[in-house]
Amino acid sequence: MSIDESDIPALARGCAVLGTGGGGDVRTGSLAAIGAVREHGEVPLIGLDELDDDALIVPLSGIGAPTVSHEMIHSADEPKRIAEEIERLFGRPPSAIMSSEIGGSNGVAPVAWAARLGLPLLDADGMGRAFPEVQMVSMYVAGLPADLVIMSDIVGNVVTIRPVDGLWSERLARAVCVAAGSSALMADYVLTTVRARGAVIEGTVTRAIEIGRATEGAADPLGALQGSLGAVRLITGKLTDVERRTTGGFVRGTATIEGTGDDRGRRLTLELQNENLVALEDGRVRAMVPDLITVVDTETAAAVQTEGLRYGQRVTVLAWPCDPLWRTPKGLETAGPRAFGYDLDYVPVEELTAHG
């Protein structure tokens, strides 16, 4: 299978949904992907079984605040500089590009990066969604050492970091990102195929395209999307309050939705850190990380990123289960509610919403 220009709109819609509010605005990633595919041709989409055991896989993602990344667009040279640094360090070139996170622009832009580098795209990622911090990837949960991070920014700087562990990779990469204006391109966990097996979440590019296509031509886009995701509807209503700030390389804040129609009289509050982390109704948790919480336009079912939340929008909030990897003890330690400072024991979304 290959990704051509006709696949990109569906991929972008699916990645926006999986982004749970973060991962960057898919519009910029889509434009980059379309331009690169037109210039360099379609991108082969491959599985791990199509790579040699010692092939180098490069997980790439934009790091920084989504409110910055859609204004400070990645240059075409950033992935090239990272690939050159990898070849210098390993003595051989990369064999494939992988999205570090399938959510948001970080799920779409790898099509552009792969096209420009003349490499295939791996049908996998490190999250199955989007998360805000560097160590919040499946490779870290799988126990692989986070001993190399390579970053490049729009100015042309290239920074190679040799952190002692995943938590230090976040601290150091975030500091470099902030110095670069809160937006940079990053490769972390450069993997051989052998090490990638069991450490990445496979099939997520294909899944994103399927999600994006679910609403195409649907008489009820919201119902079609909810069915495709196996999601529960937390509330349908109007955005009445948005508090958002960019600090320390993140977007943080809250958003409040007042119910309309059958949900009139209800109020849902979302806690944000790039992504939607916790949904609360009258102090009661309705959903929490690492499960997915996404805000969508009620009429079109198009996902609304955190930086796009505006007073008066008519939206629906959907939630659904995360990949099983995130429900393991190590997964919850890495990206459960306590990892974000919430004094909450994780409860799966299907249990929290079982009784409405």
Task: Please give a handful of descriptors for the protein shown.
globular, S-Me-THD_N_sf, single chain, 2 domains, 356 residues, S-Me-THD-like_C, CV3147-like fold, seven-stranded antiparallel sheet, ten-stranded mixed sheet, S-Me-THD_N, 17 strands, CV3147-like, alpha+beta
Characterization of this structure:
The protein has 356 residues and is an alpha+beta fold. It folds into 2 domains: 2-205, CV3147-like fold; 219-352, CV3147-like (Beta Barrel). It contains 12 helices and 17 strands. Strands 1, 2, 3, 4, 5, 6, 7, 8, 9 and 10 form a 10-stranded mixed β-sheet that branches. The protein has a 7-stranded antiparallel β-sheet with strand order 15-14-13-12-11-17-16. A hairpin with a 7-residue loop joins β12 (250-259) and β13. α1 packs antiparallel against α2 (26-40), α1 (8-18) packs across α9 and α9 (204-214) packs antiparallel against α10 (221-229). The model has no long low-confidence stretch (mean pLDDT 92).
What gap, in angstroms, lies between the N and C termini?
Answer: 41 Å
Order of helices and strands: EHHEEHHEHEHEEHEEHEHHEEEEEEEHH
How many domains?
2
What is the tally of beta strands?
Answer: 17
Output the CATH topology of the largest domain. Answer: CV3147-like fold
Shape: globular
Q: Count of DSSP helices?
A: 12
Main sheet summary = 10 strands, mixed
- Provide the gyration radius in Å: 19 Å
| pLDDT averaged residue by residue | 92
What's the CATH class label of the largest domain? Alpha Beta
Beta-strand proportion: 25-35%
State the helical fraction: 25-40%
What's the name of the CATH homologous superfamily of the largest domain? CV3147-like domain
The low-confidence parts are: none
* CATH 2nd-level architecture of the largest domain: 3-Layer(aba) Sandwich
Structural class of the secondary elements? alpha+beta
